[in-house]
Amino acid sequence: xxxxxxxxxxxxxxxxxxxxxxxxxxxxxxxxxxxxxxxxxxxxxxxxxxxxxxxxxxxxxxxxxxxxxxxxxxxxxxxxxxxxxxxxxxxxxxxxxxxxxxxxxxxxxxxxxxxxxxxxxxxxxxxxxxxxxxxxxxxxxxxxxxxxxxxxxxxxxxxxxxxxxxxxxxxxxxxxxxxxxxxxxxxxxxxxxxxxxxxxxxxxxxxxxxxxxxxxxxxxxxxxxxxxxxxxxxxxxxxxxxxxxxxxxxxxxxxxxxxxxxxxxxxxxxxxxxxxxxxxxxxxxxxxxxxxxxxxxxxxxxxxxxxxxxxxxxxxxxxxxxxxxxxxxxxxxxxxxxxxxxxxxxxxxxxxxxxxxxxxxxxxxxxxxxxxxxxxxxxxxxxxxxxxxxxxxxxxxxxxxxxxxxxxxxxxxxxxxxxxxxxxxxxxxxxxxxxxxxxxxxxxxxxxxxxxxxxxxxxxxxxxxxxxxxxxxxxxxxxxxxxxxxxxxxx
Length: 491
Ligand SMILES: NC(=O)c1ccc[n+]([C@@H]2O[C@H](COP(=O)([O-])OP(=O)(O)OC[C@H]3O[C@@H](n4cnc5c(N)ncnc54)[C@H](OP(=O)(O)O)[C@@H]3O)[C@@H](O)[C@H]2O)c1
Hints:
Layout: E1 8-13, H1 18-33, E2 42-47, H2 53-63, H3 73-81, E3 83-87, H4 96-105, E4 112-117, H5 124-133, E5 141-145, H6 153-164, E6 172-174, H7 182-192, E7 206-214, H8 223-226, H9 230-248, H10 259-270, H11 278-282, E8 283-289, E9 291-293, E10 296-298, H12 312-316, E11 320-326, E12 336-342, E13 349-356, E14 371-377, E15 381-389, E16 398-406, H13 407-410, H14 418-428, H15 437-457, E17 462-465, H16 472-479
Parallel strand pairs: 1-2, 1-4, 2-3, 4-5, 5-6, 7-12, 8-17
Antiparallel strand pairs: 7-13, 8-11, 9-10, 11-12, 13-14, 14-15, 15-16
Helix pairs in contact: 1-14, 5-6, 6-15, 9-10, 9-15, 10-15
Bound molecules: NADP nicotinamide-adenine-dinucleotide phosphate.
């Protein structure tokens, strides 16, 4: 990132939505407060909302101010002053909004111009076409695509083609905010800036890897979206597979935009396809029923309050998914990668667990294998469990003790949110932490057969009570080989 921030125009299509209000605008405010935005950088929100600049600033003042630290009212006012709003209906016939946007951007063609599409994926293609028709796509433009990028390979190809017809691939930033998390970037540093791990980062020393993203929340009011998404599309295709890539990738030759992504895509292409009857052995899908969560009684997925009644799609959608994946290459032969994610789990936790093999010959009773835990949330940190002797005379008693790196305790100052890092990378023109077209397509290519096999069954997912660690089959998935899931309450 350059020392002096360069002026830019950030056009947030969907700028009044939940993602913008909860993540993007707070992230931009934090960056502004840290002096990372040039004085003349502007944020132009777009929606159908019929707001003018003053309305939008009032909305942000009312909805965002409470969630960020405003220690200096001057900084907050400066931030509000950067904000504009343009009303546009994609697919609508009224050109007024585009004309206003054109007016706002006229004379600023030399600056970085970022179109951030925080809107449903079916608007991506139409937005790009309309921005192009209005003459707004300059050589210095970039477009950021939010997830989900389609709902299968076919739709992802279509979106990529539509966007690719207007923007060159080097201008396209497909966001997966997990890649902006400190622990995730630290995984790369841990692996490639320390010599001691590389010799043991393979099937000779590693027994298996677990990647868990557990959420306590359910889906109240989101049936319309979730019935057609499900845990596999919503979480595994993007976040969990990206984490798997970073664990499994070969050391890149350079820390640049293509080298890391080249290595990640090779991992996706090396995933052993799970097809046909194998789906029963290698995957588990579940749906939560009523139970106890956060000390309260909560309804099951089908009884969540919503504007619409549950349909057949609701009955079949999974709120939990677990997969045993295998990376078919020399380094990882025989090492299972267990992926799981679920809603209404006992607690919120995103972590990568690298389970090492036991010592070849143990002279102490009670020793357990080493384990490296990379925690992404709730509090980011890295922990290596090693065996140590409990102090005392007499018989040697072993105990696993953690060597811990807590970011909050080790590094004073706040840990920036993933969106802060990623937004600054887009403004600086650094796509390293964004997904390339071939990555997204390779991920869908692996996920698609699992989805079609699940859908062809026409059966309901396995029920699990809200507040539990998922369906019984998820425990069998790891238990079959004598392993258990990591995490108190999640095992
Ligand atoms: N919310 C999250 O935490 C989150 C996380 C990751 C990814 N995402 C993804 O980000 C996208 C946005 O999510 P969200 O939760 O912010 O959705 P949302 O709350 O429904 O907001 C959607 C935004 O898009 C605008 N919009 C929709 N259709 C439009 C059209 N035809 N013309 C102009 N504006 C239109 C909406 O404004 P008007 O309705 O006023 O026009 C609103 O500003 C989705 O693809 C979602 O999957 C969201």
